[in-house]
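Q: Can I borrow your eye for a moment on a structure tokenisation matter? Would you mind producing a protein record, from residues through to fold? Write it directly below this note and I will take it from there.
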Amino acid sequence: MIVATKSTQQLLNENALLKKQAASQSSQIKLLEEQLAWLKKQIFGKRSERTVEDNPLQMEFEGFGVDEPKKEETQTVPAHKRRKPRRNGQDAITLPDDLPIEKQVLDLPDKEKICAEIGKPLVKIGEEVTKKIAYRPGSYFIKEFIRPKYALLGGGVVTAPLEEGLLQRCQADESFLADIMTKKFADHLPLYRISEILSREGIFISRQILCQWVLRCGKALSPLYEEMKTRILQSGNVFVDESPLKMQQKGHGKTKQAYMWVMAGGKTADPPYRCYNFYTDRKHSNAEKMLSGYAGVLHSDKYGAYEKLANEKRIIWSPCWSHIRRKFFEVENDEFCRWVLRKIRYLFMLEKIAWKRSSEDRLNIRKEKEELLIDELIVVIKEKLIHGKVLPKSKLKEALGYFCGLIPHLKNYLRYPYARMDNNVAERAVRPIAIGRKNWLFVGNEKGGRAAAVILSLVQSCRAVGINPREYLEDIMRRLMDHSAKKLYELLPDRWVKKKHQQK
């Protein structure tokens, strides 16, 4: 029996092939383990990016196990009948009989009660009564406007005009409208839930009517919104971010993905204005339209639309260092990433000190301290990416590539005293969108999205400067129609609260 034997060269070749396969499989296993660890962290771990140095003196506590979750008891709820809602928007408004009434007489001036032709007093022949549902903190009531009617001796009837309100021929007072807007856009209550809350007080107003009021308020307040947007772009220091939300598709019974962009701007540590822009998609053209004519500092994440504007020298781009930090934070158990995170933490600590100093001192701290740290990071990270042994699809490779792609713009913020190294202002401003869409789920159409953007801008700007949105909205709704178009800025939240403090 003849046994075939392999040559030494064949054995060496097979050995090299097996080693190559083992190395490839080892890399794949490491990559999958990294992805699994990241997924576990997203599902079960904490989201904070705060890093804590290991402390060998830290006490350890043993014997604290994790209890198994108890099984939830369930019960069967019987089906119930629900009234089919009327979708034509014509539902009547029903108010309780015992709702308090505050009467207000709007009469003609005494000199107008005399007939201009014959000089005799006019004869009162009746009254025009207009009722509006109103709100004050803790209670609802009815405002009843009584306007005496007078017969002109030469023929005809004359009455005092109604006070000009934000919405013409509306059965809701500005106080009531302000309360609805605050509940929806500050407290994130959907309109059907607001309707149910009102019904418990005996006030029956359909969701359709509430929706119409929201749309009309958004349209009426848009001049103030445009004034805010103009002032943000004129500030030369803008923060931008966007967040997805769903928009209902009429006739399809489905929703499509739309986006709400937010702009914040100003030369303070926390700018006062939050301006939201609604678009039905995330095309680059939307960002270009929103920032049309702007050439100042722009803080943002690494979205291609902003990068394109920066490469075309149309803006001074200051990419967000918080996003850079997040990329390295997502890499598990890597000593190099821990070193990078320490350096970035030093940058943030220096910025915290710099913002407590004058603008001139801030620039000096950045030039003398921060620029050296950034240069060191650039050199070391480029070396790691080019010569380090990094798996091509790993989280580390992604972090290194993300950083290196931003190198031309990383030091832009150092040259402008009011620029920041992060985009946290805009990041915080999109959080209400994330909270809101979990409650009201979607916007009905493009008009609804634009109305939401207008009212959100005013409400969230109120929260940014620390004033009550309901109080602010009620006041400007009463004053907007009579206010000079050239002085709309006086009704913006920061100016409004400043004037209010001056009057005290």
Notes: Residues 321-422 form one domain.
